[in-house]
Amino acid sequence: MSETDADFDVDQWRAELESKREEKDGFFGEHPQSPIPPEERDGFDGLDYFDPDADYRVTATATVHDDPEVVLMDTTTGREMRYLRTVTLTFDLEREDDDLEDGTYELAAYQQERPGSEQPEPLFVPFRDKTTGQQTYQGGRYMELASDRELADGDELVVDFNLAYTPFCAYSETFDCPLPPEENWLEVTIPAGERFE
Predict the structure, then answer these.
(1) Cα–Cα distance measured from residue 128 to residue 10, given in angstroms and rounded to the nearest whole number
(2) Would you give the DSSP letter of residue 192?
(3) Do 105 and 128 contact (CB within 8 A), yes or no?
(4) What are phi and psi of 58, to 5 degrees?
(5) Which of 7, 27, 28, 127 is the most exposed, fewest CB within 10 Å of its CB?
(6) Residue 4: partners with Cβ closer than 8 Å, 6 or more residues away
(7) What would the pLDDT profile of 148-180 be if each residue is shown by its tens digit?
(8) Residue-wise DSSP of 76-125
(9) Which residues does the annotated region (Disordered) include (predicted)?
(10) Could you tell me the pTM of the whole model?
(11) pLDDT tens, residue by residue, 55-73
């Protein structure tokens, strides 16, 4: 799914992350399918981001749910969307800073029900943390994890919070976005990824 920590090149990672951010800013500013309303695009000068921080690129251990439970997620327009809780990701956060809440955390990862689909769905990881509603969007943020294989219990995969992004509904009410369920409310500050104030 991703390179192991032994192969991790922080300079290359940072350059790729900055390149992805520039590409996304271009899409938001110019593309017809941008969530920024057309009348606001001329004044758009890029999304806000936390500085890249490799401490928030963590290795998580997967617990696979063979009989996934249905989770109904509320959306920003008051509807419900059906997801399956297929994997639980367990990871540690450790930093040298004194003020970080070190510890072990869990996030549920979901997939939409798509009967008969041959392609494996990416894992959808919506979450809130202690930046939510202050430095980041009040409706939470998302990550998507794509795997090139079927996960098994104990598999390790990289979860990079620097790729956490703001859902489109933050920019326009024409979008309907699922809200992170309470099981994915992290009691920790994750100053990584996209900001939204």
Answers:
(1) 26
(2) -
(3) no
(4) -115, 160
(5) 7
(6) none
(7) 778 999 999 999 999 999 999 999 999 999 999
(8) TTS-EEEEEEEEEEEEEE--SSTTS--EEEEEEEEE---TT--SPPPEEE
(9) 19-50
(10) 0.91
(11) 999 999 999 999 999 999 9
Q: Alpha-carbon dihedral of residues 6, 60, 189, 17, nearest 10 degrees?
A: 50
Burial class (CB in 10 A: 0-12, 13-18, 19+), 134: exposed
Tally the residues of the chain.
197
* Residue 88 pLDDT greater than 60, yes or no: yes
Listed by start position, the domains of the chain span 50-195
Q: Which region among 39-43, 93-97, 105-109 has the lowest average model confidence (pLDDT)?
A: 93-97
Assign 194 to helix, strand or coil: strand
pLDDT tens sequence across 22-62: 999 999 999 999 999 999 999 999 999 999 999 999 999 99
